[in-house]
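User: Some background: our group keeps a shared notebook of sequences we're curious about, and every so often someone picks one and asks for a predicted structure to add to the entry. Today it's my turn. The entry only has the sequence so far, pasted here. Could you supply the structure so I can complete it?
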Amino acid sequence: MSDKRSKIARMITSGELIQLRRGLYATQGDIDPFCLAASIYGPSYISFETALSFHGLIPEAVYEVASATLKRPREFENAFGRYRYRTVPKRVYTVGIERITESGIPFLIASPTKALCDRIALEPRMRSMSDVRKWASLMRLDTEMEFDQPVLAFCAENYKRPAVRYLRRTIETYGGIPT
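Assistant: Of course. Here's the predicted structure to add to the notebook entry:
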């Protein structure tokens, strides 16, 4: 047993292996960080600000890979970057997820509408449609985005968060999110 550990330690030191988390390693350093997220802690899919940035809905660069999971929240840091996992309710977990392949490796990411629902659900003090508009302005959200109405409706009904319901009401009332 200690011989295996010694060999792994030597391989990490020599650069043959890159530790992703305890017990999980990569053999090459040119893998897209998104492709590793579900392996580091799963089941999970990329969401929140990371997915919003990926889809071009917010102008800011995002320096961590934020993912939604059914498990408890966790954070990991390795040579590929920082990974944060936040819990979402089981009833909304499977809706609005896309499969994308990068360099021959697939990963799961929230659709633009689902990423928006996941992110706004984190807001504890959302009490009106006006709050949604202010939040969208602070996020510098692309207000011209097209919304997937079935995903939005499902999330609003099943997320059990006022913020998601106000988001849906705002989009239905104004045909989008006015600033």
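Suggested note for the entry: The chain has two domains: 1-28, 31-174. The two ends are 61 Å apart (CA to CA).
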